Every structure is written in C-alpha cells, then in structure tokens.
Amino acid sequence: ETGVTQSPTHLIKTRGQQVTLRCSSQSGHNTVSWYQQALGQGPQFIFQYYREEENGRGNFPPRFSGLQFPNYSSELNVNALELDDSALYLCASSPTGVLLNTGELFFGEGSRLTVL
Amino acid sequence: RKEVEQDPGPFNVPEGATVAFNCTYSNSASQSFFWYRQDCRKEPKLLMSVYSSGNEDGRFTAQLNRASQYISLLIRDSKLSDSATYLCVVNLQGNTGKLIFGQGTTLQVKP
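ok -> structure tokens follow
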C-alpha cells in the first residue's frame, strides 16, 4: 500500500451541506494534491498544498478549499454541495522535486462522496 | 476539446493477445508523460513513464510522438491480471502536482 490514508471512505450528504475530507500523506512526503474522479472519468486536479500553502489550483470554484497542517496532513472542504460533486475524492502525496522526473504520485484509496 | 483524450473501450481480449492503447494530448507545452493503472474501485498507480525514445518494461512498451502529440501503450502476452483501466497522463506544469489524466481505457482480459 502507498501509506496515504484518507477518511472517511464513504459518505452521503444532501445538497447544500458542507463536507470535510481528510488525508494523511506518506511519511517523508511534504506535498499533497487533491483530485476529483467522477464515475467513468479520469481524476481531475483540484489543488496542491506545499508548506501549508496552496500551490496550484485546477478549474474548481472557490467553494472547494483546503488546508495543510505542519505534519503535512491535509483537508479538503466543499461547501454548498451540488449533485455533481458526487465523486471519488483522491488525495495524493509526493516528495518535493520528484514529480517532474518520475510522475509518481502516491494516491490514497479515496473518499467516495454521494450527494443526494 | 479535452486536454488528454483516450478511447474509453472497453477492450475485451483473450489471454495472450497483444493490445495497444492510444492517447492524444492538446497542449504542445506538455513536459512529461505517463501511464497509470487503476484497478476497479482502487486508486491509480504509476505504471510507467513515457520517453520520446520509447521505453519498455517487461511486456509493456510505451511510445511518445511529440510532433503528433500522441502517446501509446502496447501490452504483449496479456494476462488476466492486466484487466484494469489504463490512464494516459500528462504533466503540464513541472512540479506543481497537476497531472492531467485522460478518461481511461478499460481492458478486460478473458481466459
């Protein structure tokens, strides 16, 4: 296994609610990225955190926000949930400077969110 | 137009077959290229990087054509365990962690 852990693994929310997803990165990895994977699609980049600051963001609205903590763990928060937010949310960690050379992100198993 | 396009399949092949997946990308500034594998209801994992000179890892061969913005993956002597979704991935922005994934191509290897 990758050593990246996510919680919760599954959750159900209703439209308009808020959700917080959590991620613990692999030991020694200081960079965390979040991806959204809708059914039948590839993962889409939401944002990346490095040294507790956002370092790159994809095409997602501001109601998607995040945090990184001093121990490199991270949270993804989504406000005002919409039906289309139903997806698998993947957290990925990597050591700094490695991604360009190896392309290897270490993904957690994801949090599957269903919005009713 | 999607940034990375793949034929979603599914590709249904018998054991021992050779199968090829293709992928195109739209941004000529793309810096690096990869294939990831995703098993059903699991997380994606790096299968291999793709280099302009072409590269091989056992039964898997990856090729890149920068002029045509085209990436391929060839799997020889397919095994049942090769059944998975294969994701074509492009890194556009160096080390920002923003990997751009294609939709994925599903492979089912039958006995």
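The radius of gyration of chain A is 13 Å.
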